[in-house]
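User: I'm curious whether this sequence folds into something compact or stays loose and floppy. Could you predict its structure so I can see for myself?
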Amino acid sequence: MISKLLGKNKNFWMSAYLRILYRRYIVKFVLMIRSQTTAPLPPPYLDGFGYNVYSQNDEDGIINEIFKRIGTTNKTFVEFGVQDGLESNGHFLLFSGWRGLWIDGSKKNIKKIEKKFPQPLSTKQLTAVNAMVTAENINDLIGKNGFNGEIDLLSIDIDGNDYWVWQAIKCVDPRVVVIEYNAKFPPDCEWIMEYNPGHIWDRTDNFGTSLKSLELLGAKLGYRLVGTNINGVNAFFVKSSLAKELFAEPATAENLCRALGAGFPKFFNVGHPNNKYIGNKHSTKKY
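Assistant: Here's the prediction. I'll summarize afterward.
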């Protein structure tokens, strides 16, 4: 029965399922061992400052430490790709009195947000919008919902066109950017997913961009890479004019990558399964 349902793709889907189990349980176990056996680098590195209140991983602590160093202005955030909001980078910020905008492509997720966050929605502390984010519509989506000019935080996690959307944003000027990267690729590898406004992540490795490509884009946009979280999900950027001597140097992917696979044997692959060739004109690897 299961074989018939899976059809020709049964090996791929079984592999994907096993990798999900691996990420949920084995990685957590290894992270626990690593935290007890590997001393974090001292400040100005962000290692050791991460913790989880509501974020998916250790983003809450890293975000808090960044703003301890550079201060806040209007305590405003814009975040998209939040699912139901419970495991988001903005949840603890709301709890701490910030104002924000959440955008998600699923109507079901927005209905869940409306059910689970009635208080901040009713006071306009939080605005929740249902929309599929593209490079073409992102400025309109943010601007028409009352967010313009300088904000403290922008968080991007849309499992696909993250690079292209960040590059397109002009209506807000974030001081800090948190953006998902594709940790399958080593720190010195440049790779960017081909832009596709209709992209839906299929749980393979064909999504997002490598950390090195984000480092280079950030520099072009006036941002400096200041760190990543330990299991290879998010990268953290601060406006270059604010970073000064407050964060680690050199500000490169090679120096600041903290993905699990970066410090462990090769069988600890933090990436997702592959099912086709994804090399393109944006792909380079230095040998």
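Summary: The longest strand covers residues 172-180. The beta strands are 76-80, 99-104, 126-130, 149-156, 172-180, 189-190, 223-228, 234-239, 284-285.
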